[in-house]
Design brief:
By secondary structure, the chain is α/β, with parallel strands linked by helices. The chain folds into two domains: about 190 residues, Aspartate Aminotransferase, domain 1, CATH 3.90.1150; about 250 residues, Aspartate Aminotransferase, domain 2. It contains 16 helices and 16 strands. The chain is globular, with a radius of gyration of 22 Å. The protein binds pyridoxal-5'-phosphate (PLP). Pyridoxal-5'-phosphate (PLP) binds next to α6.
Length: about 450
């Protein structure tokens, strides 16, 4: 361990002790929750060692834990809460829906209006609804397979697309399991996935057209689609190199395969129109969830009408709660009344100030890292150079993150446990919230440098 690692370890030990002394209610709730839920949490991504901080309430840019500690929320529900907590417009839409019927399993006018807004905002010809990012990517892959009449798919090493079997490969493979740079392994992230599924999922590196090109040359006539996050957001943030996304589209189309963007995280966060707007490449299909529904569990996917048309001719796509009026009302209010063009100008300003503040703090104290600024999203990665792909992420320093997390939590900044995550800013965040983040981060860099 180097000197920086030793200091990070000492900071983590002291800060964790302080965090645990402030959160006895979370510890007690964790012990209780262990009896009713595996790992004491509703989703494994919410687990943390030795126990997660349990929340009670959110309002505006703040959250309160069960012990009454207030913190400014930069986790924002894995990026769903760009509207901030309990936004009056979203509350009003949900309230109205609650009073007029939350579910019919029949199409409603609000669902049609929400579909139209999604098409307009993301440049899709047609959309269909789902209830989570997982369902959206699962349906998009089904439709891509149906439209091409092919069975194999390609994904990017180090990308997460939800927890259905066909994409749960090489999400965070250990360096001993990931295979060669030119032929990444298809390694399952979970037990319980039939071995045969791996035969249909092929893995390639991000920001690299050569490996994909070789795969397509070998078996392009059997590949239905490549699904990828156009900007990777489950290993910090990895931006596409200029020309990469268009290069993918050209290569795939040359072989009759489709390009599917997973915009579950980037949609409505990195720009009003997501990565399609920011990077200027339109895929054949795209998937959206998280931020589009203002903190309610909705999702959608869509794109070319001829591809989506396979749903009318045999590709099954359904779900009891798809396009439900409660979620549609929340989503419609979110996109049309809250996440307006002005909102993105505001988010861009806050985000840039936050990223610049973090970059300055690291530079002043000689901390090896860089900050990424991408609309409502951004992050610090503890590696001086920007990342190009998953293997670069393995060069970052989780030991620094393990110290910065409790440091922030003890100073009123609520962050996602896990160095693969990024911050999300909401329209209810203020300059004072950004100052709060930068101040504690400067303090952290100073303490690390001592
Ligand atoms: C890029 C991406 N795709 C898909 C998903 C799955 O979404 P959900 O958790 O709503 O099923 C996630 C979740 O974090 C994600 O980050």
């Amino acid at each position: 361990m180097d000197a920086l690692g030793t200091r990070a370890g000492k900071i983590a030990a002291g800060e964790n002790t302080a965090l645990w002394s402030r959160t006895p209610g979370s510890k007690a709730l964790y012990e209780r929750a262990l009896r009713s839920m595996p790992m004491g949490v509703p989703s494994s991504f919410q687990a943390w060692d030795p126990y997660p901080v349990y929340l009670r309430e959110g309002k505006g840019s703040s959250v309160w834990d069960v012990d009454g500690n207030e913190r400014t929320d930069f986790h924002n529900g894995f990026g769903c809460m760009v509207v901030g907590h309990a936004h009056p417009k979203v509350v009003e839409a949900i309230d109205r829906a609650a009073r007029t019927g939350t579910h019919f399993a029949a199409p409603t006018d609000v669902t049609v209006a929400f579909a139209e807004e999604l098409c307009r905002r993301f440049g899709a010809e047609q959309v269909r609804f789902a209830n989570s990012g997982t369902e959206a990517t699962m349906s998009a892959i089904r439709v891509a397979r149906a439209a091409t009449g092919r069975e194999h798919i390609v994904k990017i090493e180090g990308s997460y697309h939800g927890h259905h079997d066909q994409v749960m490969f090489s999400v965070v493979p250990g360096s001993d399991l990931m295979g060669g740079r030119d032929a990444p392994a298809t390694h399952p992230m979970s037990t319980g996935i039939p071995k045969a599924v791996a035969d249909y999922t092929h893995v390639v590196p991000f920001n690299d057209l050569t490996v994909l090109g070789a795969l397509l040359d070998e078996m392009g006539d059997r590949i239905a689609c490549l699904i990828l996050e156009p900007v990777m957001m489950n290993i910090g943030i990895v931006q596409p190199q200029p020309g990469y996304l268009q290069g993918l589209k050209d290569l795939l189309h040359k072989h009759g395969a489709l390009l599917v963007f997973d915009e579950v995280k980037s949609g409505a966060t990195v720009a009003a129109g997501g990565a399609v707007e920011r990077y200027g490449v339109t895929p054949d299909l795209a998937c959206w969830a998280k931020a589009i529904c203002g903190g309610t569990p909705g999702a959608a996917f869509g794109g070319r009408a001829d591809v989506m048309g396979t749903i009318a001719t045999g590709a099954a796509q359904q779900g009891t709660f798809n396009g439900n009026p409660l979620i549609s009302a929340a989503g419609l209010a979110t996109l049309t009344e809250v996440l307006t063009p002005d909102a993105y100008t505001y988010l861009d300003g806050l985000g840039t100030r936050l990223a610049e503040g973090c970059a300055k703090a690291m530079a002043e104290h000689g901390i090896p890292g860089h900050a990424v600024d991408l609309g409502a999203k951004g992050c610090v990665s503890y590696r001086p150079e920007p990342l190009q792909n998953y293997r670069d992420f393995l060069d970052t320093r989780p030991d620094l993150y393990l110290a910065s997390y409790p440091w922030a939590m003890n100073r009123g900044v609520y962050m996602t446990p896990g160095d693969e995550e990024q911050w999300t800013i909401s329209v209810q965040h203020t300059d004072a919230d950004i100052d709060r983040y930068i101040e504690q981060f400067e303090g952290f860099c100073g303490a690390l440098a001592q």
